[in-house]
């Protein structure tokens, strides 16, 4: 059984994951409008992944007999100056999510709620991969640039990540698993 304080914090994370899904779906729409088909597909799939993160939390709360409260959310931004700015915003958002997960882990450890602490370890590893992936995309953008054919190449590279999600991190680094 979850404490009310833990339940409240997990509900907050559920809503944050739901917002993440909407944010990435909106960003995918911006990319589609800019004819960045690879980025659009990558972000649309990423939106689905964030929704899965929300559902995983929701299921955990149901398993523990806690009540899930879905709240309202602000609409995500709709306009970006460039694909570089868009991925900078994504990276900032992933850092924010990591901070939120770390706060949950800290709370679960101090409460103590070892079952939730164990459950949250998956999110800790997932966030490490997310930050690593987004930093890798930003590094590619910096390396290739977005002028002229650079934008086309970036879109192609990011599109490759969408077609092989299991290889997201290795496609950017040329090697091993970051976790």
From TrEMBL:
Fe cation binds at residues 17, 50, 53, 94, 127. CDD domains: Nonheme_Ferritin. It catalyses: 4 Fe(2+) + O2 + 6 H2O = 4 iron(III) oxide-hydroxide + 12 H(+). GO terms for molecular function: ferric iron binding; ferrous iron binding; ferroxidase activity; identical protein binding. Its EC number is 1.16.3.2. It comes from the Bacteria. One of its GO terms (cellular component) is cytosol. Residues 1-145 form the Ferritin-like diiron domain. Keywords: Cytoplasm, Iron, Iron storage, Metal-binding, Oxidoreductase. Coiled coil: none annotated. Belongs to the ferritin family. Prokaryotic subfamily. Iron-storage protein. NCBIfam families: PRK10304.1. This is Ferritin. It comes from Leptolyngbya iicbica LK.
């Amino acid at each position: 059984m979850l404490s009310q304080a833990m339940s409240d914090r997990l509900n907050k994370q559920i809503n944050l994951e739901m917002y993440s899904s909407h944010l990435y779906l909106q960003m995918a729409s911006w990319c589609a409008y800019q004819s960045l088909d690879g980025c659009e597909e990558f972000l649309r799939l990423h939106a689905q992944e964030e929704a899965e993160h929300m559902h995983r939390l929701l299921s955990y709360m149901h398993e523990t007999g806690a009540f899930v409260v879905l709240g309202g959310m602000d609409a995500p931004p709709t306009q970006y100056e460039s694909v570089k700015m868009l991925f900078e915003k994504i990276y900032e958002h992933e850092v924010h999510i990591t901070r939120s997960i770390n706060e949950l882990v800290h709370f679960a450890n101090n409460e103590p709620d070892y079952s939730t602490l164990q459950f949250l370890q998956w999110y800790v590893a997932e966030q490490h991969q997310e930050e690593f992936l987004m930093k890798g995309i930003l590094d590619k953008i910096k390396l290739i640039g977005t002028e002229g054919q650079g934008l086309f190449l970036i879109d192609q590279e990011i599109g490759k990540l969408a077609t092989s999600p299991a290889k997201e991190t290795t496609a950017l680094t040329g090697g091993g698993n970051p976790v």
